[in-house]
Write a structure and sequence with these properties.
Blueprint: H1 3-33, H2 37-40, H3 45-53, H4 56-62, H5 68-77, H6 85-98, H7 105-118, H8 128-152, H9 157-185, H10 195-207, H11 211-218, H12 224-233, H13 241-259, H14 264-278, H15 281-287, H16 289-312
Helix pairs in contact: 1-3, 1-5, 1-6, 1-8, 1-9, 1-10, 3-9, 6-7, 7-8, 9-13, 9-16, 13-14, 14-16
Length: about 325
């Protein structure tokens, strides 16, 4: 496979996954801001949404205040923000056009149909209700594309590069959600386990489709250390860091087997996977969750660079 084709497939999947992630973050923020003040406290949930998306510097270069109107415009519809939902779908469609013959008919119909439907929203949603429908549509569109890839692609290098993009992006997204929750969402004077903490964590779990899974696994009320355990170390949880890296290692091994050689990306991915397998939540909290997640995000970015250098250029 040409490196250019692999690059298009990899980034096509990353952009679709990123669009869904942004929709989930905005939906969780909208849900939190709809709660009474007694439950949401004095924290600025819209500011935390910008921080979670990892584009605070770009946002504040364009806007003075993180409020509902500015954040929804920047993260959902702005053409100036290369990581907005609109930009992600447009870039995804551009990558899909470049590798049209490597996609199945169902995959092309899913991403092209999403791009065409996106034009209907123009410069944004006219009401809170319409914006909620837009966010649900974004998530459904991502699931449709992901499902079409999973159910129709040959299990060859095109498929494996596509899945690498999904899981590298998903791991980064889950890590950022956890990091922002611990350090921006909960005010310093709010006790852990209080009503504010509970509703924030419930919203975060719903943003990664893990609220029901949490109760199946732990059968307890929401507890921060158990939520962190679920989203970091549980292989059974599809969006956990451990699950993402199990899939990354598996797909990199498939590529290595097909091409007959290993490389830095495989070794780096296996090292990250091994550290997650050997980690315990007691040790992570003792060392510091913020430090652990910060190191993970850095390692995940290095893996992305290693994949690019080894395969995509």
């Amino acid at each position: 496979m040409l490196s250019r084709t692999a690059d298009n497939l990899y980034w096509l999947s990353r952009y679709v996954e990123r669009a869904e992630y942004l929709a989930r973050i905005l939906e969780a923020t909208q849900r939190l801001t709809a709660l009474p003040l007694a439950y949401v406290g004095e924290s600025n949930e819209w500011e935390s949404a910008v921080a979670t998306a990892g584009c605070g510097k770009a946002f504040y270069a364009q806007y003075e205040e993180a409020n509902a109107e500015n954040v929804t415009d920047f993260l959902a519809f702005s053409t100036a923000n290369t990581s907005s939902i609109r930009s992600c779908f447009e870039l995804a469609r551009s990558n899909a056009r470049a590798v049209r013959t490597a996609l199945t008919v169902e995959m092309w119909d899913a991403i092209n149909g999403t791009w065409l439907e996106l034009q209907r929203y123009g410069n944004g949603a006219s009401s809170r209700e319409e914006f909620s429908r837009f966010l649900r549509w974004v998530q459904e569109s991502s699931l449709r594309f992901d499902g079409s890839a999973y159910r129709t692609m040959l299990r060859n290098d095109a498929y494996w590069f596509s899945r690498l993009g999904v899981y590298v992006e998903r791991a980064d997204n889950t890590a950022r959600i956890l990091d922002v929750k611990y350090h921006l969402l909960l005010p310093d004077n709010e006790r852990i386990g209080g009503p504010l903490d509970y509703f924030q964590w419930a919203a975060i779990l719903r943003s990664v489709s893990a609220h029901t899974s949490y109760h199946w696994v732990y059968k307890e009320n929401l507890k921060p250390w158990l939520i962190a355990d679920l989203l970091i170390l549980k292989d059974e949880m599809p969006r956990s860091l451990a699950s993402c890296y199990e899939a990354i290692v598996r797909n990199l091994d498939q590529i290595a087997s097909a091409y007959g050689r290993q490389g830095p990306a495989q070794r780096l991915a296996r090292g990250i996977r091994a550290r997650l397998q050997n980690s315990k939540m007691d040790g992570i909290f003792q060392r510091g969750l913020h430090e652990f997640i910060g190191e993970f995000i850095g390692e995940n970015n290095r893996l992305g660079s290693a994949i690019t250098e080894q395969f995509l250029i």
